[in-house]
Specification:
Elements (H helix, E strand, L loop, with lengths): L1 H5 L2 H10 L11 H15 L7 E4 L5 E5 L13 H14 L1 H18 L11 H14 L16 H14 L2 H16 L13 E2 L7 E2 L2 E2 H18 L2 H17 L10 E2 L2 E2 L2 E2 L7 H8 L1 H11 L26 H15 L7 E2 L2 E2 H18 L2 H17 L8 E5 L2 E5 L2 H18 L2 H18 L32 H16 L2 H13 L1 H6 L5 H11 L3 E6 L5 H10 L7 E6 L3 H9 L14 E6 L2 E2 L6 H8 L1
Parallel strand pairs: 13-14
Antiparallel strand pairs: 1-2, 3-4, 5-6, 6-9, 7-8, 10-11, 11-12, 13-15, 15-16
Helix pairs in contact: 2-4, 6-7, 6-21, 7-8, 7-9, 7-21, 8-9, 9-10, 9-14, 11-12, 14-15, 14-16, 15-16, 16-17, 16-18, 18-19, 18-21, 22-24
Length: 621
């Protein structure tokens, strides 16, 4: 539409004479996008982008569509015809359009009321979510549903927790099948690393080549957790490769993370990523070129418009078999690719997506015991908390080229708090827990619905639009309400604050009617329900931070998959005293006989202190 219509003088002339044209970046203004996309779905039965809305001066929409060609074709109305018809109707029959807008807004506000029965979740709801995922699982290629296929990493998080809580082996097998298939496929960039946004086919071979920061953050977490569950090094290796891509190509000099890389370059989809055997052999020579081509399925006929997307789908052995032989060849191919015209980089820095990558990097540093990732997470958190917080302490949503804009939305708060919790558990620096608690309180103050429960998408101090929605659907991204529910539960357990526990329980109840209708569409929310339903543990490590016995005990804990466990470190120093202010119950937790000690409480009942790291691991497993 940009090329056909918005850069076209004939269209521009009609627009400028009759309309006020507004172009919205949906990532900067998710509130506007959500509301008017809901309108489009209600009016047309479908949604998608680009989204075209025509509305009255007071924001009330009366026409909605997705893509419109300049002139009508193949049953699609043309933009010029619609603009002329609407301009004529506005002159001759304005009241009818205004009444239509009023009706649509009334219906929209009714839809967003979320009047549904409130019930407690039960373990049967958890089992239903699992059974629904099992039914939609692709047993041949992994993933869920049909093409196009999206990764939806939180489905995998849910399945790993389900396996851990119930012992259902099949849940973990579904995770492994999906992670293996995605890593084999062309959705993973085997030359420069990182994942594309989704696969256009069932096999994960042909991606939509756009790379999004949030996909790579959420997928890195999935591979890290799978590594903990299975102890298979290949999953740790994939996470490392994702982080290599992010640190090399998607990290701003100031420390924040960029948003995305486009699918096309030089006007062609995927051109940057495609190869022919001839190109490879020009770089590597005949013999090594042939080895490389057969390893990555690069053929004369190609697998995408006559050229090849490197992949490992055809490999009969392990996906990373003989990889050490390929590494130096891949490096040469990568260096050659760097001289190509790169896809455009969307270099805005979004608080929300940075929160997700902070969580991923912090987890990566903790689980893989690699300080580079923790440093990257800390730099990004520092950047957000310095540059994207207003003078009044209000979080902001977007930074680009020195300019900050837009009051932060629910997702910004929820994802950032998630990142800060992970950063605390990776570093045990109380300042991150303190930030998480403060931002969480601000989120409750600004977004919480005191009458019906749940969090609104935008704050009470934001621009008030024609409706104030709440979102709980866990689509390509988990919803802000789902992540907020989990954050509340974790912070309640970390701090012992009963008020946070009460808000969390109200949050679960507020959306129970909607989520129970089809729990598999709300897998991150179901993770929060699972956290509330199944036993949880609080572990306080006591000892001097940095001492070898304390480090050994923490490192032992970090080898276990313990998703329903929160941890604190009480050290006898200034940081320990700072932590006592936020978490008074730890005051009595001291090292036993001067040794590193773990105080383990399960559902608020505490065991005898543990001073042996092997005993701790035995209990966790």
């Amino acid at each position: 539409m940009e090329r056909e219509s918005f850069e076209d003088e004939e269209v521009a002339d009609i627009l400028n004479k009759n309309f006020v044209s507004i172009k919205v970046d949906r990532e900067e203004r998710p509130d506007i996008d959500h509301i008017y996309m809901t309108v489009c779905q209600a009016l047309t039965g479908q949604g998608g982008w680009p989204l075209t809305i025509i509305m009255t001066p007071d924001q009330k929409p009366f026409y909605a569509a997705t893509y419109l060609p300049k002139h009508g074709r193949m049953g699609l109305p043309g933009l010029i015809d619609i603009l002329k018809a609407v301009a004529q109707a506005w002159r001759t029959n304005r009241q009818a359009l205004i009444e239509s807008g009023n009706k649509i807004v009334d219906g929209l506000q009714e839809q967003f009321r979320l009047d549904s029965e409130e019930n407690d979740f039960t373990k049967e709801d958890i089992h239903r979510a699992y059974r629904q995922l099992e039914r939609s699982f692709d047993r041949v290629y992994g993933g869920f549903g049909h093409a196009p296929k999206f990764p939806i990493p939180h489905n995998l998080y849910f399945l790993m927790r389900y396996w851990k809580m119930t012992g259902e082996r099949k849940a973990l097998e579904m995770v492994e099948k999906t992670l293996d298939a995605m890593y084999r496929g062309g959705i993973f960039d085997h030359i420069g690393y990182g994942f594309s946004h989704y696969s256009t086919d069932r096999k994960w071979l042909v991606p939509h080549f756009e790379k999004m920061l949030y996909d790579n953050a959420l997928l890195a977490i999935a591979y890290l957790e799978a590594y903990l569950c299975t102890k298979k090094d290949v999953y740790a290796e994939v996470a490392r490769k994702v982080f290599t891509y992010i640190l090399r190509d998607m990290t701003a000099p100031e420390g924040g993370f960029y948003s995305a890389e486009d699918a096309d370059s030089e006007g062609e989809e995927g051109k940057f990523y495609l190869w022919t055997p001839g190109e490879i052999k020009d770089i590597l020579g005949e013999k090594e070129g042939q080895i490389f081509c057969s390893y990555y399925g690069i053929t004369d006929e190609g697998n995408f418009e006559g050229r090849s997307i490197p992949n490992r789908i055809h490999a009969s052995g392990p996906v990373n078999e003989n990889e050490s032989l390929i590494v130096p060849l891949r490096q040469r191919v990568f260096m050659h690719r760097e001289r190509r015209v790169r896809p455009f980089k969307d270099d805005k820095i979004l608080t929300s997506w940075n929160g997700l990558m902070i969580a991923a990097m912090a987890m990566g540093g903790r689980i893989l015991q690699d300080q580079r990732y923790i440093r990257a997470a800390e730099r990004a958190a520092e950047f957000i908390l310095n540059r994207l917080v207003g003078k009044n302490g209000r979080l902001l949503a977007r930074y680009r080229h020195g300019e900050t804009a837009y009051l932060a939305f629910l997702d910004d708060y929820a994802y950032l708090i998630w990142g800060l919790i992970e950063l605390y558990e990776a570093t045990y620096k109380p300042v991150y827990l303190e930030y998480a608690i403060k931002q969480n309180q601000q989120m409750i103050d600004l977004f919480w619905d005191p009458s019906r429960g749940g969090f609104f998408l935008y704050g009470r101090d934001s621009e008030q639009l024609i409706a104030r929605p709440k979102e709980v659907y866990d689509g390509a991204l988990p919803s802000g309400n789902s992540v907020a529910a989990m954050n509340l539960l974790r912070l309640a357990r970390l701090t012992g604050n009963q008020d946070l526990e009460n808000v969390a329980m109200r949050q679960l109840k507020a959306f129970s009617g909607i989520v129970k209708q089809y729990p598999a569409s709300h897998t991150y929310f179901m993770m929060a329900a699972m956290f509330a339903l199944y036993p949880t543990r609080e572990i306080v490590f006591a000892g001097s931070k940095g001492h070898q016995d304390v480090t050994d005990m923490i490192n032992a804990f970090n080898t276990a998959f313990a998703p329903h466990t929160v941890t604190l470190l009480h050290s006898e120093d200034e940081e320990g005293r700072q932590l006592e202010q936020m978490v008074p119950y730890i005051r009595g937790h001291k090292p036993v006989d001067g040794k590193a000690t773990a105080y383990v409480c399960e559902n608020f009942a505490c065991r005898a202190p543990i001073v042996d790291k092997d005993e701790l691991l035995k209990m966790l497993n």
